[in-house]
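Quick one, T. Sequence first:
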Amino acid sequence: MKIIEINEFTYLKKSKIHNNGVFASKFIPKGTRLMEYTGELVSKEEGTKRCDLSHAEHKKNPNKGAIYIFDIDEENDLDGDTPDNYAKFINHSCETNCEYEQEGKKIFVQSTKDINKDEELTINYGFTWGEEDYFEHPCKCGSKNCVGYILDEDDWPKLKEHLKKKKQN
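C-alpha cells:
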C-alpha cells in the first residue's frame, strides 16, 4: 500500500498491528486534536442492525466484519464505515497514545501523550466484557502490557480472573 497523507498531522500506511494504520507525520504534542471520526448518523435500531451484521461476517471470516459503530446518544449511533473516514484505521492497542472525545454528535481523536514522528497512533476500542465472546477479538498490538484481547481497560481485571479460573480447570 502506498502512503496516503490524511492531514497536517497524520498519514496512512501498512501497520504491523493490523492491516493499515494511522501514523504521525511530525511530532504531535499531548492534547492535540488530530481528526474527526466521521460517518453516517443512524438510528439506534439501524446501528444495532449494522453491528450485528458485521459481527456475523466476522464470525465467518476474522479478517472481515470490522465494526465502526459509535454510541452517540439514546437515539443515535455513528457508523464510521465510510470511505472518507481515515480515523477508522487507527488500530487498537493495550498501550494507547490517543483517545476519543465526544462533542455533541461528533467524535474526535485526540493525543493523550506526546507522539513522535512516524509513530503509529493507537486507541483502546473500549469493547466491553462478554465472557462468551471476548476471545473473538484477539489483540495484536504487541505492547508489553498487552492482555491478549481487545477489551476496555476497566474490564482487564475480569479477563485476568476469568483466564486464571479457566487455566485452573
